[in-house]
Amino acid sequence: MNKFLTLLLILSQFSFSQVDVKNDLITKEDRKAEKKNEKERKKVRKEYEKAQNETWKKLDKQKRESSPWATWYRESVVKGLLQLSSVRKNLYKKNLYDTYVTRPTYEGSCDQYMTVRSIEGVCNDLDDPTMGRVWTRFGRNTDPKVDFKKQYDILYPNPRTISKELLERKEFKAVPFLNLMAVSWIQYMTHDWFSHGENEDPSKEKKPFYLPILDPQDAKEFGADRILIPRSMIDRNKSKDDMLVYRDTFRNEVTHWWDGSQLYGSTQNVANSLRSYKGGKLKVDTNGNIPMNKGVDITGFNRNWWVGLSMLHNLFTREHNAIADHLASKYPEMTDEDLYQKARLITAALMAKIHTVEWTPAILPSSHLQHGMMANWSGLVNTLTGSANKVKKGYEVLPNEVLFGIVGGKKNLADVPFAMTEEFVSVYRMHPLLPDTLNFKKMNNPSYNSTLSLHDTRESKSGKLVNKYNMADLFYSFGQMHPGQLTLHNYPKTLMNIDIPFVAKMDLAALDIIRDRERGVPRYNEFRRRLQLKEIKKFEDLTSDKEIVAKLKKIYDNDVEALDLLVGSLAEEYRPNGFGFGETSFQVFIAMASRRLVADRFYTKDYNKKTYTKEGIKWVDQNNMKTILLRHFPELGKNKVIFGVKNVFNPWLKADTNRK
C-alpha cells in the first residue's frame, strides 16, 4: 500500500495544477492568465522562503542535527507527506482528550435531523447526540488532569511588559504573497469554531486580574496604572465525578461543528430571527446587504466586529440566497424550510472547502501543503483525474483518506468524542496579521485613496464604511492590501490600547498571554513536549536575533520553561518553507484540521446526494472563492482585478479602466 501511495503522490505533483473548478464564471482567457501570473507569484514566495532559510543555512551540520526543529518540509513532497501522515496518526492516539467523565445526555429525538443539521449542533453524532453541541466543553490536546498552572504565578512575567517589550509593532512587517482577505477570513472561520462567551462579572465572586503598568510613561500613554482583565466564564455544570477529576473547564458559546454558525447562529431564536421565510432565504435589505443595528450587521455571531467581517458575512448571505434560488429552480416541490436547510448545508460545506483547499495553501504555501490539503478534501485519485467528484465506488473498495479524501468517506472519531480544543484556540491567536491602517480604493477611480486607522473600521464604524463604499470596492481594497507577519514586534499598536464595551481599555496582546495561562494551556516548552515535539534548550534555539534573545532572557529570567506559548511561537525563526507560522502551531493544526472534517457525518458518510441533493454536491464541487465573488460582484470581473488570480487570497491586480 505504501508503494502505491508513494506512486500516486509522485504522479499528483505533475497533475495538481490541472485540478480546477469548472465554472463558466472563470473564462478560458482568465485560466490562461492564472497560469502565467502564478509564475510571478511563485517568485515572490521563493524570495520569502529564501529569507526564511538563510539562518538555517548558516548553521553547521552538527547544530542542524541537534536542533529541536522538524525537517519533514526539507524532504521530497512524497517523503514529507508520508511523515506528516505518521505524525497525525500519533497525535490522534496520544493528543485527543475528552473533558467529561459523565457525558451530557439528550432527551429529544434525532429523527428530524437525519438529513439536515440542527442549529444547536445536536444529533450530528447519532450515538452521542450532545457531542459538539452549543455550550458543551472544549476538549484538550494535552492531558486535562494535569494542572499546568502550578509551576508559575499566572501574572509572571507581567503580560503588559511582554506586550510592550516583545510584541508591540515597531514597523509593519508585511506578508508579500497574501492579501488582507486572508485575515478577515480566518476571523470569520474562528467565529464559527469557538468562543468562550461573555467574561465573568468582575463585581462578583470571580475577581478579575489586575495587571500593573510599571513604566510611568507607559501608564500615562495607556491612561491608567493597571489593566483590569475579567476572568473567562468557567463551566459550572459539572458532575461530582468531573469536579474530582478535572480543573476548571470552559464551554464553547457556539457549536463545535464546522456548520456556518457564525452566519446562521447557534440558537434557534437567533436562527429564526435571520430568516426571511421566503424561498429559504436569509434577510437582506434593498441593497442586498444584511440589515444592521447601530452599524453592526444582524447575523449569527457579531462580536469583535469590523468591516472585514461585514464583507464576508454579506458575501455568504448572498451566496446562501443564490443557492436557495438555484435549488428552487431545480426542485420546485421544495418548501421554504427544505430550501433553507439544504442551502445552509451547502453553504457550510463550501466554506469548509474554501478554507481547506484555498486559504490554508495560501498562508502555508508549500508543495507539501498544497497536495496534503487537496488530499484531505477530495483525495489524490480525484487530483490525478481532475475530477471534483467523490469516486465513491473506489472508496468502498479501498477505504483510504489519502486516495479518496475525507469528504464523502468514513467517519472517524479516533475513540474520543469530538470537540474544539483549548490548544486549538491558543494557536489561532493571530492578531499580528492585522495592519494598524487600511487603504480604501475605488475601481473606477484609480487616483482615489483613503487611509483609515484600524480603529475606524470597528464596531458601528464598519456600518458607515459599508454605506460609503459599494461592497465590490471594499473587496477590491482588501485584495490590494497585505497582512502582517506572525512574528515578534508586529502586534498592532491599535489593539494594545483599545476600548472594549463594558470593560474599558484593554491590551489584547496582554490578554492573549493571560488567557493561555488562565485556561491551563502549557507554556511553550511543555506544550512542545506534550505535542510530541522536541523542547528547546536555550533561547538561542528560537532565533538568531541577538537583541530578541537578550530581551527574552531578561523578561523570563533566562528560564526557557517560563516562556509563553504565544511568545515562543511568534519567535520561531526556523519555519517550514514559506509558512506564515511555525511548527509548534502547525502541530496542533495537524491534529485538528482533518479532525473537523473526519468527525462530522455531514462531511463523511452523509456527504451525498440524498443529504445535500445532486445539485448541492455539484454546487460545492464547481465553486470556489473566486466564482462566489464573480457571481455577486461581477464588476470585479469587468475590471479584471482578479483576472489571472487563481487563489483570491493572493494579491489582486490594480484596476485599469483602459484594460481590454
Description:
This protein starts with a helix and ends in a 22-residue tail after the last helix. It has 660 residues and is mainly alpha-helical. The chain has a single domain (29-74, 83-203, 240-381, 414-660), classed as Haem peroxidase domain superfamily, animal type (Myeloperoxidase, subunit C), CATH 1.10.640. The chain has helices spanning 2-15, 28-58, 61-66, 77-94, 159-167, 181-193, 216-222, 240-245, 261-264, 268-274, 307-330, 336-363, 367-377, 380-385, 392-397, 401-404, 422-427, 460-468, 471-480, 508-518, 524-530, 546-555, 565-571, 583-598, 609-612, 614-621, 625-632, 635-638; strands at residues 209-212, 226-229, 292-293, 296-297, 437-442, 445-453, 498-500, 504-506. The protein is globular, with a radius of gyration of 24 Å. The longest helix is centred in the first third of the chain and has 31 residues, at 28-58. The chain has 28 helices and eight strands. It has a two-stranded antiparallel sheet. A two-stranded antiparallel sheet has the order 3-4. The relative contact order is 0.17. 45% of the residues lie in helices and 5% in strands.
> What is the terminal-to-terminal distance?
52 Å
Supply the helix-strand structural class.
mainly alpha
Widest β-sheet, arrangement of strands: 1-2
The overall pLDDT, averaged over residues, is 89
Shape: globular
* Uncertain stretches: 11-19, 390-395
> Looking at CATH, which topology would you report?
Myeloperoxidase, subunit C
Which architecture would the CATH scheme give at its second level?
Answer: Orthogonal Bundle
Number of strands: 8
Q: In the CATH hierarchy, what is the superfamily?
A: Haem peroxidase domain superfamily, animal type
Number of domains: 1
Over all CA atoms, what is the radius of gyration? 24 Å
Fraction in beta strands: 5-15%
Question: How many individual helices?
Answer: 28
| Main pleated-sheet profile | 2 strands, antiparallel
Just give the CATH class. Mainly Alpha
Percent range of helical residues: 40-55%
